[in-house]
Structure formats: structure tokens, C-alpha cells
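Severity: low
Component: inverse-folding endpoint
Summary: output formatting inconsistent between runs
Steps to reproduce: submit the following C-alpha cells with default settings.
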């Protein structure tokens, strides 16, 4: 595995800032959820509203995640969404949480994120995952092959190739030595070139130990999907820290965790909102993906005993309630896991509930108001 270079990438582009009374930096993960009776257009407009709110209130970064073939999740094209968000924000870091590397040619990702870096210099993060972000049939359609295992197994090699394209440093004699990702560092070395050699920092994402160990060995920042794999959080973070080797990118481990959290003006409303997301997850897990149901439908739904057991287990890992209750839950989670940053995702039917949740959380931590 080639060493990951750190030219123009330092910890200050990775480590978040703490605002207000928060004990760790707070960020946002957006799945661009689409509720029943809503359109993808409305969901994407909500994403802009939340990104602008997050920027105004001092959240550190805003990531979008790659998913496919899910009617209730409109985030199949992170790079396109990030370009849209870059045009409507000025300061907040924007990134992928993540792009699923096996679904794409490394050169394509390097070109897309080089373009984003040119659009929003110094504000772009490139988070990478090795899962398909969908079911097997959809993954096969994306990759034009049914040999899906190879993508995950080849992840370290794909990562090395992507990094070479981002740094424009394939060695002489390599088949890609004369292939350049543009926009990118090659423009800084061309005659008259004034392009910055900076490129987005790479994060590795995961929900198990594989990416945790790889991120540690390479000295990269790590993001763990606590919001859907809570039982593995502490073991994965421990493995990351134990495996960590200082690099040109980081001199010490830096890990964030994705956290499902929703605050409302009262406990009952918070419960109503998260129940609609839980019902959407029940349907997804049983092969019936659809739009996110309304809270009214979720309340009236007759859960089977097996479904009820799943929902109860699912809701245990969603921090929800009043703003004070959510703040307490987030603080407890940060202390228990030792996470360096919390990235909050709010899965609810309507954009209004999600916006209100982030506003309430910001108020609970006395985050900036302008």
C-alpha cells in the first residue's frame, strides 16, 4: 500500500472547532430524506436551508451520503449536491459521508472532488466508504459487474490509486503517469500555472473494523457510522486508535461518529418524528423501501411483535427528546466513546422538523447566532 501523502493537508483542515458550550465540535450528516407527499426538489431545498442554518449557527461541517435505489433518500449523487450547497454557503466545510469508492473509477472521484475544491477552496472533505450503499442488484448495475466482492477486497488498492490521482504523483513508468485529474495539482506545474496544489483531505468511513484499522495504519481521520451500527462503535474506535501511525496528515488520531439525534419542543413530538424514521427503516430492512411515512401513519401502524422488537432496539440508539435531553444524550455519548466530533443526522418525515431540531440543538449548546 502506497503511503498517503499530506502535502497541503494538515490537521487544521481535519480537526473541527468547538463552539458555544459543546464539549466537541458538532457537524451535520444529511441523507436528503424525502417524505410522503414531498418531492426530491423539496428535499434538496431543505438541504440548502439546513446547510445555511448549520453555517450560521457554527456547526463545523456538512456531509452528504451516497445511497442508491431508495425512494426516501435522494442523495445518490453527493458531488452534485455538494456543488449545489457550495453555491449557497460561504464558510462551512462540505463533504461526502461518504462516496462509495468501489462504485466509481478513482479518476472520476478525483475529477469530481478536484472540481469541488476549485469551487469552494479549502472547504471540501472527501469521505470514502467501501460498501455499495445499496442492495446487491443495484450495486451490480452501478459497477457493470456481478463480481461485487472484488470491490471491497480491492479497496486499499483503489484508495492508493485515488490518492495518486489527487496528488498527481504516479511514478515514472506507471501506466497512469501521464494521466491527470483536472482540476488538480498538474495545473500548478503547467507553464503559467497558478492553481493551488491543495486537495481535499481523505477520510475513511466504516461500520466495522476494516476501515478503522486501515485509517489508523495510514494515519487518516476516521468516521464511524454509529447511527446504524452502534454496537460496534467503541471496538472500532479502539481499533483505530490502537492501529494509528502518525502521518503527514495527522500526528494523532481523529475520529468522528455519525449520530442519529432529533430534538423537538416536547418529548411526545420528538417520539412521533423518530417513529416515522423507524417505520421507514422497518420497511427498508424487509425489502419494502419507500418514502418516509408521516408521523400520523407511523403512530397508527400496527407493528408485528418482530417489527416492534426491531423498532425498540432502533430507537434506543436515536438521541431524541427536548433540546436539553438531546444535549445530555450527546454529551454522554461523546464521553462514552471518546469521539473527537459528533456528526448529527436527523431522519424525519418533513424538513420543518429537521430544521427545528438543528436549531434547538444549536440553542442548547449556545452556538453562535450569526
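Observed output (run 2 of 3):
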Amino acid at each position: 500500500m502506497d503511503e498517503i501523502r499530506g502535502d497541503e493537508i494538515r490537521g487544521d483542515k481535519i480537526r473541527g472547532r468547538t463552539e458555544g458550550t459543546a464539549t466537541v465540535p458538532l457537524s451535520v450528516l444529511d441523507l436528503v430524506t424525502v417524505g410522503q407527499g414531498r418531492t426530491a426538489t423539496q428535499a434538496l431545498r431543505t438541504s440548502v436551508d439546513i446547510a445555511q442554518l448549520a453555517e450560521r449557527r457554527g456547526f463545523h461541517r456538512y456531509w452528504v451520503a451516497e445511497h442508491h435505489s431508495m425512494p426516501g433518500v435522494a442523495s445518490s449523487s453527493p458531488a452534485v449536491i455538494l456543488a449545489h450547497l457550495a453555491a449557497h454557503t460561504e464558510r462551512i466545510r462540505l463533504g461526502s459521508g461518504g462516496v462509495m469508492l468501489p462504485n466509481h473509477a478513482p479518476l472520476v472521484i478525483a475529477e469530481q472532488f478536484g472540481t469541488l475544491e476549485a469551487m469552494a477552496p479549502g472547504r471540501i472533505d472527501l469521505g470514502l466508504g467501501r460498501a455499495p450503499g445499496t442492495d446487491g442488484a443495484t450495486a451490480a448495475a452501478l459497477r457493470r459487474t456481478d463480481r461485487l466482492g472484488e470491490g471491497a477486497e480491492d479497496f486499499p488498492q483503489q484508495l492508493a490509486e485515488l490518492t495518486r490521482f489527487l496528488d498527481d504523483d504516479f511514478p515514472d513508468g506507471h501506466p497512469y503517469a501521464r494521466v491527470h485529474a483536472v482540476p488538480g495539482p498538474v495545473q500548478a506545474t503547467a507553464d503559467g500555472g497558478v492553481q493551488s496544489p491543495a486537495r481535499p483531505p481523505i477520510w475513511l468511513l466504516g461500520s466495522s473494523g476494516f476501515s478503522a484499522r486501515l485509517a489508523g495504519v495510514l494515519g487518516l481521520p476516521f468516521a464511524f457510522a454509529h447511527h446504524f451500527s452502534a454496537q460496534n462503535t467503541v471496538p472500532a474506535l479502539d481499533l483505530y486508535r490502537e492501529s494509528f501511525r502518525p502521518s503527514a496528515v495527522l500526528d494523532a488520531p481523529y475520529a468522528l461518529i455519525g449520530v442519529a439525534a432529533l430534538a423537538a419542543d416536547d418529548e411526545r413530538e420528538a417520539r412521533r418524528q423518530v417513529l416515522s424514521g423507524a417505520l421507514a427503516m422497518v420497511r427498508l430492512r424487509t425489502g419494502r423501501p419507500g418514502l418516509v411515512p408521516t408521523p400520523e401513519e407511523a403512530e397508527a401502524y400496527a407493528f408485528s411483535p418482530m417489527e416492534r422488537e426491531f423498532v425498540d432496539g432502533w430507537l434506543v440508539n436515536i438521541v431524541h427528546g427536548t433540546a436539553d435531553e438531546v444535549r445530555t444524550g450527546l454529551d454522554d455519548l461523546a464521553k462514552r466513546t471518546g469521539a473527537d466530533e459528533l456528526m448529527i443526522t436527523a431522519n424525519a418525515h418533513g424538513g420543518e422538523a429537521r430544521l427545528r431540531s438543528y436549531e434547538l440543538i444549536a440553542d442548547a449548546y449556545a452556538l453562535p447566532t450569526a
